[in-house]
Amino acid sequence: EISACLVGSEMCIRDRSYIHYDNIFTHRVYAQIIIRRNGLFMKGFAMLRIGEVGWIEKDRPVCGPNDAICRPLAIAICTSDVHTVWEGAVGERHNMILGHEGCAEVVEVGSEVKDFKPGDRVLVPAITPNWSSLEAQAGYAMHSGGMLAGWKFSNIKDGVFSEFFHVNDADGNLALMPEGMDIVDACMLSDMVPTGLHGAELADVQFGDTVLVIGIGPVGLMSVAGANLRGASRIIAVGTRPKCVEVAKLYGASDFISYKNGSIEKQALELTGGKGVDKVIIAGGTVDTFESAVASLKPGGKIGSVNYLGSGDYVKIPRVEWGVGMGHKQIQGGLMPGGRLRMEKLGSLVASGRLDVSPMATHVFDGWEHIPEALQLMKDKPAELIKPVVRLV
Ligand code: NDP
Ligand code: ZN
């Protein structure tokens, strides 16, 4: 029966009309079966509008000459997905498929793609710049095409919570998944590892530094790990969720501060005999957190921020603690760098065993139907949660 219907449904795909058929209902059912088999239609979990999510069906993305089409093997939920849906962080979006964290199998590549082929298992960065852009040539590929425009998934195009997703500049952005890597671990390489480690890069952590890490959700935990890998001698972590505190210790945090027990700077200065810390990484908090960060720093100290600032018009810098403008205290905030080279290097870091990301995935589900539940978990942030991951194979 299905093959008998093939001709009819192909007509339908071409002219996008159902009017050739006597029985519209029957036709729709057949058409969906056949379109799915031909891979032209796909299902995804989407932001329907601010504050509302649901399953939708869409056309499968088209593969350009430099692109790849991938199918996810596993996906992870990010705090940014929560900001996107419930806080309107990227503005209003209608029927936009969510998700920017996952690992995948390549199903199709464009004619110009040289280094990947269908069947390859790949790491996929959350940020997929256009590598020929001027911003990339200037060293800021994450802003290729405009401020933050390297962030494409679930921002300026459909994301990865979908049967198929599109990757621009495949040779520049994908990386082969290291042999034997667990697909749950591979999901941490999309965003948590590159972003958290970028915090340590932006703060310019050096051997022997005392580092204050503000926020120890999954991003901050990777900042703790990054500071440790770069040779910090002491890592003071700010956060309260018990599971995060436990894992922060594993990654090298030696002291803890609760932002709920008074000012962060007061506690940080107490812990350092009034001297302050060499570096601060900000991976949580608000616009007001910069005040604490500046006040916690020694003269000449550096702040690296990877936190998303969802509200407030200004970041305040305390005048006196900033050395009345002459304290040599630097502040840098950045979106994670994406791209293949970084994915390959960070993939090797995890594959070598030097960075164990497995404690991060506290909630692992099997099957597409668990995506809504996993997203809700990330919104609710129960005490035992770090990161929810959904395996799709
Ligand atoms: P979480 O919400 O899981 O963690 C936030 C951390 O900040 C927690 O440890 C929390 O403490 C702590 N915190 C909350 N309020 C304060 C406060 N007022 N002062 C100090 N600390 C506070 O977030 P994630 O780790 O998932 O993400 C962190 C941030 O990074 C998010 O804003 C996210 O959007 C952003 N991000 C940025 C990216 C980039 O490329 N720059 C990429 C991905 C994410 P507690 O233990 O009490 O909950
Ligand atoms: Zn993310």
Tell me what you see in this structure:
With 393 residues, this protein is an alpha/beta fold. Helices cover 31% and strands 22% of the residues. It is built from 13 helices and 16 strands. The strands form 3 sheets. Strands 3, 5, 6, 7, 8, 15 and 16 form a 7-stranded mixed sheet that branches. Strands 11-10-9-12-13-14 form a 6-stranded parallel sheet, with helices on both faces. Helix 9 links the parallel strand 10 and strand 11. The longest helix is centred in the first third of the chain and has 15 residues, at 24-38. Mean pLDDT is 91; it is low at 1-31. Zinc ion binds at residues 78, 80, 100-101, 126, 191. The site of NADPH dihydro-nicotinamide-adenine-dinucleotide phosphate (NDP) has 29 residues, from helix 3 and helix 8.
Produce the secondary structure layout.
Layout: H1 2-15, H2 24-38, E1 41-49, E2 52-59, E3 68-76, H3 79-86, E4 96-97, E5 102-109, E6 121-124, H4 134-137, E7 165-167, H5 170-173, E8 175-176, H6 183-188, H7 192-202, E9 210-214, H8 218-229, E10 234-238, H9 242-251, E11 255-257, H10 264-271, E12 277-282, H11 289-296, E13 297-305, E14 330-333, H12 340-351, E15 361-366, H13 371-380, E16 387-391
Bound molecules: NADPH dihydro-nicotinamide-adenine-dinucleotide phosphate (NDP) and zinc ion.
Short description:
This protein is an alpha/beta fold. Helices cover 31% and strands 22% of the residues. Strands 3, 5, 6, 7, 8, 15 and 16 form a seven-stranded mixed beta sheet that branches. A six-stranded parallel beta sheet has the order 11-10-9-12-13-14, sandwiched between helices. Strands 2-1-4 form a three-stranded antiparallel beta sheet.
